[in-house]
C-alpha cells in the first residue's frame, strides 16, 4: 500500500467542535474516507452500508443505539476463545490473508516528538459499524495475538491526532470482548454523536490519571498533555490492562 507520511505538524491538537459543521477535514480524513468510499463502490465489503437507524437512549448515560442488522448477520463469527492469552493460530483467519485492495495505506511518522512509532497498516473493516470504519494493524507478518501493546496503542493514538473530525475515535476490544480475530488490531471509526464522557468530570488519582464515574461503568482517564507524552501514557495504559 501507499505510505501516508506525517509529522508533528499534521497533528490536530484542537479538533473541530460538534457545532462547527463547516470545519475542513484534515489530510488524513480526506485520504481515509476517499479510500474507504472507493472500496465500498468496488464491492469489497461484506455488505453495503447505508443510513443506520440511530437514537440516543433516555437516561443520564445517554447511550447511542444503532440498528445494524447486516453486521450481526454477515460479520465473520468470532473465533473461539479459551483464554485471554490464546496464542496466534496461523490456521485461523488472520490479517495476512487480507486482499491487497482492502489495504488503504501505511501510516509512518517522520521527525519528532521522540522516536516514531512502528508503522501501522490501515485497512477497511469488511463488516463496518460506521462510515470510515477501519482496522489499524501493526505489521501483520509479526503474527502477534490480540493483546494490547504499548507501541500499537501509541501508533493508534497518533492516528487519532491526525483527524480533524470531532467524532473520530480509536478503540481496542480483546479476546472475550467481542474481537473476532486473534491477530493484533485496533479500530478507527467516525462517530456521529458526542459522548458524555468527553465532558464528564474526573476525580484525580495522580498527575496524569483520573477516575470517571459518569459512564455505564467506572473508567480510568489517562491524560497526555501533548504528543510527546503519548509513549509513557501508552505504557501506563498497557500496564493497567495487564493488571486487570
From TrEMBL:
Source organism of this protein record: Machaerirhynchus nigripectus
A single BP term in Gene Ontology: glucose metabolic process
Annotated Pfam families: GDPGP1_N (PF26217)
One of the record's GO molecular function terms: hydrolase activity
Name of the protein in question: GDPP1 phosphorylase
Start and end residues of each GDPGP1-like N-terminal domain: 27-188
CC annotations in GO: cytoplasm
InterPro entries from the UniProt entry: GDPGP, GDPGP1_N
